[in-house]
Amino acid sequence: MFVQLNRRAAGFTLLEMMIAIVIMGVLLAIAIPNMSAWLLATRARSASEFYMEGFALARRQAVSHNSESRITLTVNPGTGQMDWQVDICFPRPGTPCDDNSGSWSTTDAAAGNDPQGVAGYRSVFRAASALPGTDVLAPSILPEGATAIYYTPLGWVDPSVDNRLTQLRLDPSAAYQRDVPVSALAVSLAGMPTKCDPTKAAGDSRACPP
What we know:
single chain, 4-stranded antiparallel beta sheet, 210 residues
């Protein structure tokens, strides 16, 4: 009798196993969607860091190379977010840094007048493929239609460039407004990117510059 009771206590009956499987199934059905939503919200909240890296890199490359630099934003075909690329250029008499001169670096080649020649700096490109789609987080640029910021060798924004980007705003969709705050990155003439809250009124330290 003792041996039989001990064997019974050591295992599961078929009914107990089925109940355990059902309970695990219910828990997974609840947890997986919540986990997916949490991961998506986390990716959306980190989007501003992705763009902050690009703006900071563009300014840093201008200063470190004593060159002009630019960051250009383009729409990612998969997510609808903005890819970015940082290029540099070394202006010389007769070869200004304009978009048609071919003097800017690319991801495949150094800038035409790079002091290091063909071994010089090559453009850095970052795709926004890992960011959530625009159905979760919608980007918008101020002023409308702007796509780039140009920096001088001192790291200041070049004010002579028309329609330069001054602010990138990120708005969560209605389904994610509780978990993802509205945010923006503003770039002043000093070239420093800063995070701000476009929903705050002027005078609030968190508000974006006008």
